[in-house]
Amino acid sequence: MQIQVVKSKIHRVKVTGADLNYIGSITIDEALMDASNLIEGEKVAIVNINNGERFETYAIKGARNSGEITLNGPAARKVHAGDIIIIISYALLEFEEAKTFKPWLVFPDETTNLLK
């Protein structure tokens, strides 16, 4: 039996932009992606602390150490620059493996979005 568990989490980052006229996705500072073990194109869930919105999209790399967190396309309607969000990805694991699995959890500086 497989179950879905949290694989990666970037906890409480500030949205730096919202670009409605982009095809779609969330642009994430490459350093944050590396630290949280996210890869480009990976499906992510977004939880907006400010308004309670929850939605899914996929990750694309932003400039390393830029602090960029930009929601693109239709997702741009669910956030505003300055909102605080949580970015989560999940993985399917065998039940026994899931019992000992340790996710990659990142807690960047909430003001700059840079790694502490």
Structural overview:
One of its GO terms (molecular function) is aspartate 1-decarboxylase activity. It comes from Flavobacterium stagni. Substrate binds at residues 57, 73-75. The chain has 116 residues and is mostly beta strands. It has one domain: Barwin-like endoglucanases (Beta Barrel). It is 11% helix and 47% strand. The chain contains two helices and eight strands, in the order E-E-E-H-E-E-E-E-H-E. The chain has helices spanning 30-36, 95-100, and strands spanning 2-14, 17-19, 25-29, 43-48, 54-62, 69-72, 84-94, 104-106. It is globular.
Short descriptors:
EC 4.1.1.11; 116 residues; Barwin-like endoglucanases; globular; autocatalytic cleavage; eight-stranded mixed sheet; mainly beta; pyruvate; cytoplasm; Asp_decarbox
Structure summarized in a few sentences:
This is Aspartate 1-decarboxylase. Heterooctamer of four alpha and four beta subunits. The protein is mainly beta and 116 residues long.
Helix and strand arrangement:
Blueprint (H helix, E strand, L loop, with lengths): L1 E13 L2 E3 L5 E5 H7 L6 E6 L5 E9 L6 E4 L11 E11 H6 L3 E3 L10
Parallel strand pairs: 1-8, 2-6, 3-5
Antiparallel strand pairs: 1-7, 3-6, 4-5, 4-7
What is the count of β-strands? 8
Q: What separation lies between the terminal Cα atoms?
A: 38 Å
What is the count of distinct domains?
A: 1
The CATH top-level class label: Mainly Beta
Shape: globular
Main sheet record:
8 strands, mixed
Strand content: over 45%
- Structural class computed from helices and strand pairing: mainly beta
In CATH, the architecture is Beta Barrel
Average pLDDT score: 97
Helix content: 10-25%
Which blocks of ≥5 consecutive residues have pLDDT under 50? none
* Secondary-structure element series: EEEHEEEEHE
CATH level 3 topology: Barwin-like endoglucanases
